[in-house]
Amino acid sequence: MVRKYIVADFVLTALVAIGAAFWGGLLLDYGPILLGGLEMPRSARILLLVALFVVLVVLAIRLLGERLSAELPDESLALLLERQHPELGERLMTSVQLARAESNLDAHSRPLYEHVRREAAQMSDELDIRRVFQWRPLIHKAIAAGVMLLAVIVFALATPSIASHAISRLLTLSDDPWPRKAKLEMVGVEVPIVTFADPDSSAPPEIKLLTFEDRSLRLARGGSATLRVRAMAEDRVVPELCTVHYETASGQRGQANMRRVGGQRNGYQEFSLDGPPLDGLAEDVRFTVRGLDDRLSDFEVVVVDPPAVAQLEIQCRYPEYLRDPQNTSDAADLVVNYAPGLRIREGSDLKVIGNSSKPLSRVDVMLRSVDGDGEVQSAKVADDGMSFSLSLPDFSEDQTLLLLPVDRQQISAGAPFRFFLGVVNDQPPEVSLNLVGIGSAITPVAKLPFVGTVKDDYELSRTEIALAPASQQNTQPVLRDIQPQRDGSFEGQVDLRALVADDMMKSMAPGERLNMFAEATDRYSLADRHVTQSDLYGLDVVSPEELLGRLERRELGLRARLEQSIDEIRQLRDVLKTISGDDWQAVDSATSAAQDEGEETLRAEQLRVLRIQQSSLQANKTSEELTGIAAALGDIILEMENNRVDSVDRRQRITSQVQQPLENVVGGELKSLRDLIDQLSRVARDPDNGPELAVQSVDAAEEVLLRLTAILDSMLDLESYNEILDIVRDLIDRQNRLIDETKDEQKRRVLDLFKPQ
Known about the structure:
- The chain crosses the membrane at residues 7-26, 46-65, 138-158.
- Keywords: Membrane, Transmembrane, Transmembrane helix.
- The chain is an alpha+beta fold.
- Helices cover 43% and strands 25% of the residues.
- The protein has 5 domains: 2-85 and 127-170, no CATH class; 184-199 and 206-304, Immunoglobulins (Immunoglobulin-like), CATH 2.60.40; 309-323 and 330-424, Immunoglobulin-like, CATH 2.60.40.10; 430-542, Immunoglobulin-like, CATH 2.60.40; 546-740, no CATH class.
- The strands form 5 sheets. A 9-stranded mixed β-sheet has the order 2-1-4-7-6-5-8-9-3, with no helix packed on it.
- Strand 14 (360-369) and strand 15 (376-378) form a beta hairpin.
- Helix 6 (135-158) packs across helix 7 (160-170) and helix 11 (595-642) runs antiparallel to helix 13.
- The longest helix is centred in the C-terminal third of the chain and has 64 residues, at 690-753.
- The termini are far apart.
């Protein structure tokens, strides 16, 4: 009976422990699911089974093994029965004790012992042994075990799927998750595709979806992304709200609510998050998405530095026309690290070599001109991925080089790297031409002296002087090579008579027009050669007589200018006389007079200063005018020489009687007059020195007038001489015309003799 009791007690206790472990494990594993948590991991479930096994082993040892192996003394059993059955009257206890001491009993005590033993034996047959055991603990354990067993049966019958799932997870350690009301799925992360589009464009950027691998995803530092999650709508409950719980690498925690995206489509409801923690990523982020009783846990976004162009080297090979013909090397002519403002010579072949901050898988390239976008191409990436190269042949216009590096995890830079490459265009040459001693008209045998300058940004191919008759549009112009100096200046002359003698051009008759210009060509060979022409000189071809007539008319104009200058000097002399005639002493004494007299004196001084200033300006103007007249006379002399209509007498007359005297007046008497007027302006308020300087200025003006009047008389004499020459030239012209008419008449009469009557 005792062994049955011990076994029953052990079995019931073990059942209670197993039931408690089952319901406790179910609570720990499925309870968090109801609260939106996660299942127990496999390790926790294994630990639970191990703990249950240990408890059962301990119970088997303590409640079964130790009890069954324990020895129960007869005295203890007898005492236990005596307590539960007082009617024994200690007979059973006395019999047990006397039985141990039976060998020591006296003869008279043995009958008494036998009597007590028989009574105890008779009464023991009628005893209820079950009263000895404590049945209440056993009943409690049986009730507890029964309740747990009944609960398990009811649970299994009511929710067989949950019960079987619990058994599979708790006993067989299955990793199948518990069924939930809601079902969330991780879609991924949307990031904008970095392209070469204009950042100011209003068009929305293209989007690509990145998926998690082993719950981890790499994104570029500083970038922004949109988290996408979807909830199953068919046979599931769609959460009203999904929440992202996140923690950054620095320990910052937070949560953010995801928003619904539209309605249900294809059996799913989309949720998105486009703010923190995925906005402006700066560090790693771990997060969990919770929606109703489902959650997506332990997702991680690893932030990595995007690839960058650490250095850009430009290797430039100039076009052939800019290179030394003796240089046959294929080496670059210019190797330089890129810097803002870098400009490349037009037509150069470029090789761009870049270094990256991390290994690259590819580098997308676009050359964007001023007009718009170009074609996307790829650079050549080195095997180690740390450098790349790109060839740009015939670089001929300003362009922006856009580089978009992509690393080996397919993470691109946040924006294309922009490098502006300017082009130094080969400019056409600049050439200027000036004729020296030649006016707008020339004779057919004229010499055409010229000077000029020519400049080019690199090197000239040739420089020429071109002559072309205006009436012969399709005629190839006559070209004459010239060799400029190192500074670009050049000079020379074209002799029309020599060109005609050498059969290089036809003789030009009066009335025709000759165009003359300079032409410069550089070595530019990328397209059409750069050919630049100077300003065109249109020269009228006239007879010597007509040219002299034009020059004489110019002399008349110069004489009129000289007469005007004499009038201005005469007016200047009168003003100086007025200044010298002022009452300088009265002005000085008036300073102590009354106030009204002082004001009148002040006005007189101011008027004197104004007159002196006007005189100075007039003297300077006249000096410049006379210098111009002398230079114009020199041009007339040069024109006569260059047109071969010069006469020694005429040149000497103009030079000795007009030009040189004018230059002497400007550098002598007129300069002295200007100096005196300048001194007078400094003593305009000095009554001691002012009057004397004013008188000297008047005398100097008189001297200038005398000299200019004499020069004017010489010009009048020259005019009379020129008039006589005009009369002679007219007589000669009439005589020539009469001779020509006589010859024509004689020919006509001879021809009439041969006509039939």
